[in-house]
Predict the 3D structure of the following.
Amino acid sequence: MAVHWHSFFFWLMAIMACGFALAVVFSNNIVRMAFYLILSLGAVSGLFFLAGADFLGAMQLMIYVGGTVVLLVFGVMLTARRPWVDMQTSGGQWVLAAVVGALLLAVLLQTAFSVPPWQSSAAAAGALPPAAEPTAGPLGLAMVGVRVERMADRPAAESSSGLAGYLLPFEIVSVHLVVVLVGAAYLARARRRLSAAAPARPLEEAPQ
Amino acid sequence: MELARVLPLLLGGAWLAPLASFAAIVFFGPRMGRHGRGAGFLATGAIGLGFVLSALALGIWLGEHPLAGDGHGTGTHSATIAPVTGQWYTLARFGSLQLGVGYYIDALTVAMFTMVTLVATCIHVYSFGYMHEELHEVTDALAPLSTGQPLRRPGRFVRFYQYLSLFCFSMLGLVIAGNVLMVFVFWELVGICSYLLIGFYRERQSASHAANKAFIVNRVGDFGMIVGLMALWGGLGTLAFGDTTDEAGRVRPGIFSQVRPASTGHALWVPEGFVRAAAASQVAEIYRQTSNPQEAEARIRAALGPWRSAGWGYSLLVIAGLGIFCGCVGKSAQFPLHVWLPDAMEGPTPVSALIHAATMVAAGVYLVGRFYPVFTPEVLLVIALVGCITLFLAATIALVATDIKRVLAYSTVSQLGYMMFALGLGGWLAGLFHLLTHAFFKALLFLCAGSVIHATGTNEMPEMGGLLRKMPWTAWTMLVGCLAIAGAGVPFFIGLSGYYSKDAILAQAFLFRQVNPRLGWLFFVAAGGAALTAYYMFRLWFMTFTGQPRDAHRFEHAHESPPVMYVPLVVLAVAAVALGWPIFGVTELLEQARPAGTAEGAMGAGFLPGLVMPPEHLSHAAKVHGPATWIAMLTALAGFGVAVVFYGVRALDPADVRRTLAPLYDFLWHKWYFDELYQACFVRPALALARLAAFIDRKVIDGLAHGLAGLVRLVSVADDWLDRLFVDGLVNRIAQGTYRAGLALRAIQTGQVRQYVMFLGLGTVALFVLVNFVWTLVLGIP
Amino acid sequence: MNLLGQPVGLVHYLVVGAVLFACGVVCMAVKRNAVGVLMGIELVLNGANLNFVALGSRFLRADSPLALGLDGQAMALFVIVLAAAEAAVALAIALNYYNTHATIDVDEADQLKG
């Protein structure tokens, strides 16, 4: 039996991603949710690698797993309460959410399955997929406005359509990040507690 | 001096002076002098001026028409002095009917003016003293309040003189009137003044009732007068007494000229209008037969004579006369409308003296005298009968009356009966002469009675007595009055004024008896009445002034009246004594005014063919005058004697007679039960009718109105229910629906983030489904 | 195992992306902890990223003109960056919320209730 290793890893990563995503959903412990999220996102990163987006996979691991989820864990820790509060959702709402999720899933699956299969004839013949090429270079150059991978495809050079890079979005996102940084810092600043009648309730009290 | 210009001016001035006084007092009265005293001066001055002008007019008249100087006048001159007639102002003209303010001045007018103004002046002066308490606040014990306290009210001095002035104006207007309508207007005006003055003490219920009674009873008589007026207007086409000249210069004959035209020697004949009206069917027949109106008119005119001789239209003339007399019955308080005069004594005594003795009640007699030419012998007999009944009826009631003013009131009614009696028997001069003399001595008697009332504070004679020493002026002048009314005098020589006038009446009655033997009893009734008159007048005098005082308290406080009150008494007493004396020639003056054609006497025609109206001058013949005088003297002495026996020397006790003749006494005491009779016959049915009308108004008409209102209310309630249920309901329901929808939708807005997320998901799915399926199905895009 | 012997196609990636997406939505709808909701958001974004990448993958495209090529990866990169920024802001909000209300339960944040 010839194991298509690409498929094997795909299935592995896919099951990990979906499984841990489900675990995130069904877990009640926020810390465990964070952990499961890390694992899920890691699996997604693997999927990225398998899809040929190596730079992106690395970025996923670095930014998402190493940054965003860590941020979430910080958030978890900052909002933890002394007697550990377990917030449960009622069964009815689970049902409703499940119904909504199922519907959504059905819609999406229907869309997904409506995409025509576009395996190349070479792949259908069982040929090995082409070798992976590093995408970092082209991505970087695309960020600054040079689309190197398209230059070879175009027959004529009079029109420059399709050659525009992502310079402007790159700049916008940069500024955006600065703004977000400042904004988030402001939003989450620590409040001075002036008197006993502070808006914050004591941590001992269980919220209801 | 031209009478036609001067007399209207003088008498018109005398007439209007009281009107000016009235107007001034109406506007400025309360401000005249202290407490309004000046109003009295003004009124007295006005009527005094009236007297001066009247006396002046009399003097001028006598200068133009000197008296014959032969005692009683021959009376054969049918060419009596033409009266001064004219019109001052025409109010309106309706076709041939001319309504205006006009005058008719003859000797009678001048004499009446002088009498009225003189008596009124005396009474105005007297009232200064009598109404003195009206200058300040008055306490009226006879008008108690519901708490039992006597009424306290401000004085009405000014009002009194205001009404007196208005009355004098009205009376003089009546006397000078030149047409019947003006007479009627002033007739009603004196009625109003009488009402106002009788009800002067209006807070007393008795006074207000008496005022109402006087006016309503007069109104009954006035109804007949209007019928007479209509008959006259319909038949004669004019209401003026004398001839008038219209703008074209044509002479339009007045009433007297039409009824006693010169063509017949001023004998009474039925005017054309009455004949035509009575023979209306024949007139219509002629018009139907003839095609040409002028020819028809000619035929009718030719037939008028035979018709008149056949008696057509005579009844209409009788009706006209009776109608006018009806008014006189009411105004002069003759039977059966005499019931108001005794109650009219509720007014102040000067009012009783002026209005209900001397002037207003005399207006009826004056009108009979003025209308004399129009009366047929039948009407005259009716007048005489009414007068006869009245004089006897009133005299009997006066026998037992104890209120001093009531006695005098009934005496007035009786004397007015005498005047009507005389006029009805053909004694025109006698009746009017008695009118003049009666005015003076009756006014005198009333003013003396007022003096006594003012002094003792009571009207009841049983509470008086022995006042001769305390009130000499009053007592002696009243004695003069009593003698005058009784007709005292030396027979065939000299006497007081009443002697002459009463003598004339009895002489005429005696004459009448001679020519109408079947009606001879009239004379005996009149003679009996003279005896009764003497009796009750002296009974009054003895009871008041002689004997022991019956109420010591009143006697203590009695005092003589102030000069302002007893000087007019003296003036009137002088007139009462001297007026009848031949040297003053009052009878000759009146003779000048005798209407043309009435001196000759007449024969009854249509209804009483055998009736003979004797000419008055025959009553002066010795064989008539002699027996009449003796009988008058004897009856007066008899009455005087009985009064002396009962009340003078008190030989017999009247109480015994009262007990013995108790039923008769009761009958007389209750005034022959006339008031009760009228109450049952007229007053109660009228009140029942009024109650029925009020009941219909309250229950039926008001019920209908309330029912309609209730119906409207029900309709509005139903409408309201509909409105609330449907209209409001609809609007409210829409609003509520919207609100409930909003409340329901509010449930979705839970604020729960997770729920919003679910809706997001659902919405996405729905959109997808929509786009996926509907897009392809509807738009056909595969 | 012909499952493992077959090369995977685009559909598989899309299905995984769909599953992640649905899980993320359910997680957002179910979790009461605000940070849990943020985790759901991350899952959603990852599902979307997977789609982008799958559609731009050299291995999965069949020279179809509809393939995204490098654009897919570039878009996914931008998504990651923006997701990070958004996570930062959202966490700031959550911390702010926690600081003012002393609770992290989003069910308590119903002051916009109608």
